[in-house]
UniProtKB/TrEMBL annotation:
It comes from Streptomyces hesseae. It is a multi-pass membrane protein. The lineage of its organism: Bacteria, Bacillati, Actinomycetota, Actinomycetes, Kitasatosporales. This is RDD family protein. Residues 56-146 form the RDD domain. It comes from the Bacteria. Keywords: Membrane, Transmembrane, Transmembrane helix. Residues 1-22 are annotated as: Disordered. The chain crosses the membrane at residues 58-81, 87-111. Pfam families: RDD. It is found in: Membrane. Residues 7-22 have a biased composition (Low complexity). The keyword Repressor does not apply.
Amino acid sequence: MIDPQHHQVPQQPYAPQQPYAPQHPYQQQYQQPYYQQAYPYAQPSPHIPREVGDLRRYLFSFIDGMITFFGGFGIAVHFTAGKSTGAYWVCAAIAFFGLSFVHHVLGAVLFRTTVGKFLCMTRVVRADDAGRPRFWQAVRRWLLGLTWLPMQPIWSWFGDDGAPYEDGCGLRYVHSGDLRRQRNGRMTAW
């Protein structure tokens, strides 16, 4: 009932409701049961940015391949001027693999990108936590790219129905804008 003089509801003491089922005898001595603190030491799972599509993959692979191809031959021409053809091809092979290693491994470890990936706004991250790639992960990925991945389109013509362009060695290619949003704390669902 409302008090007409003060227009307030009279104060009644709070009475907690009794549970519908009888309480367990051990539950009475603990005020806060364990299930209220679900995994107090669990780390929040990192949000992994979205992967790039196949068209972007093809484009940055083409750009990086052309940089490695023409850069390797350009270095060989520079260092073998006036030498034999055999010396040119040996120098071209060394320059090709050396430039490819520096471009793909050191670029991924130091900058999270290569020139082609930078132009396509793509970054290389670890698949489990979106962190910077580790050196040996990048080396394994480079070796995988030199040997296994170029054969995937050919194998797909012969009926291999697997996903031919999956990222190997725990690395993936993601959109660089998603990493910037994640770093600034504005990560949203897509």
